[in-house]
Amino acid sequence: MPDQWKPSVTVAAVVQNEGRFLLVEETTTDGIKLNQPAGHLDPGETPASGALREALEESGWALETVGLLGIYLNRYISSRTHEDVTYLRFAFACRILNQVENAQLDEGIIRTLWLTPEEIKATEAQHRSPLVLHCVQDYLAWQRRERPLMPLDHIFTHDSVIVGPTGSQTILK
């Protein structure tokens, strides 16, 4: 049987405060890039809990999810491995709870930024993926009531994710 195609599942937190969106500046194999707080979904977590974990680890901000902004597919050729990579991104509209004092940010995170939609558009060449701007545009469309958020209960996570297939307890982050 040939290799089975499997996209990498990622989660992202999209949050706006006083007209500015939270982004992180990070070191990647393609240089310094801008992204929403985002990363791979870890074993034992729901997509929503993964997005909140990534936001805290990458930005130091504790957030809560409001709804599912969208599910996105993005494909590119890795500059490091030259492999064809596809990402399946769950992006969540979030709101701020609080900033965590002395939060230790993930390795590779240079700083957090709060940028206006215009500044995000102007820095498009620095984005980690085309999904950064697309998610901001979808968030703004939701605010203008041009598109709805999907309720969080539209993403079902079976107990086998939280409790492993052998019955062993997985820690839900």
Structure explained in plain terms:
This protein is α+β, with helices and mostly antiparallel strands. 21% of the residues lie in helices and 39% in strands. Strands 1, 2, 3, 4, 5, 6 and 7 form a 7-stranded mixed sheet that branches.
Summarize this, please?
The chain has 173 residues and is of the alpha+beta class. It is built from four helices and seven strands.
Number of strand segments: 7
State the helicity in percent bands. Answer: 10-25%
The global form is: globular
Q: Give the H and E element order.
A: EEEEHEEEHHH
Q: Residue ranges: pLDDT <50 for 5 or more in a row? A: none
Radius of gyration: 16 Å
State the major sheet.
7 strands, mixed
The SS-based structural class is alpha+beta
Assess the beta-strand content as a share of residues: 35-45%
Mean pLDDT, rounded to whole units? 92
Can you count the helices?
4
How far is the first residue's CA from the last residue's CA? 35 Å
